[in-house]
Amino acid sequence: MLGTKVDEEVARLLRRTRLSVSCKRRKLGIASFRPWLRPWTEEELSLLGTLPDAEVARRTQHSVSATRIKRCQYGLAKVDHKCRPWTPREDALIGRFRDEVVARRTNRSTAGVRSRRSFLGMGDIFECSPDWTKAEDILLGTAPDDEIAARLKRSQLAIQRRRLKLGIPVNSRTRHHWTPEEDALLGTMADRLLAEKLGVSLPAVISRRSQRGIIGANPRRAWTAEEEALLGSMPDTELAGKLSRTELGVATRRREFQIPALRRK
After folding, report:
1. Secondary structure class of 51 (helix, strand, coil)
2. Is the overall model pTM greater than 0.85, yes or no?
3. Cα-flanking dihedrals φ and ψ of residue 105, to 5°?
4. What is the radius of gyration, based on Cα positions, of the chain?
5. In 10 A of CB 260, how many CB atoms?
6. Which of 45, 48, 89, 199 has CA atoms 20 to 30 A from the CA of 131?
């Protein structure tokens, strides 16, 4: 029954899912009942790229979308009778001049020239801006990319590409650029204090310290034997004030030693 009806109908008759029927049909190499889903023949494939997709779809009874996808799979250019074909003289201009110049000389759009250049396998061989100087390279990373772009009169994308090519880290307004001196302070004090000192957010300090594998500094003062001897001898509130600790800290330490709380009557 596979291929004699649409997969949905066969699935209903066999009490199976449509996906199961479709997978079994493809596994056995059986073409779909729908004409636009059947395999392409060599004769039909030879039409791709020689006629517009709509015309190939009409002749082969495949859908226009399937025709376009199959043409792209074979790397064939789109044929459009509304656009005049490229001549060898026009192709010779591509790669020698910028796309805007070629578009002006050939009376075509810049997008059309760019598409033709891509079809011919030519990359962006011309830069829109002049060559980079050493003075411009020195400025990269000293400020956010948009500020450098405004100063050098280049696009922000050009600044970003040049900076990445030279391996220069970004100078972001939202992301802090850590220096070796700042990295040396990680773990030497509480993260909150270091964040206030450097003027960055607390999550930024915690993330940087975790990336470096540095253990955070413990801001809590260690308990002495004399302090532990006072646990339970007075209410936690009074002892916390006497020891300059928090009431929660005193209560937590007292519970660790299983010492009952003392409450005033």
Report:
1. strand
2. no
3. -75, -30
4. 36
5. 9
6. 89
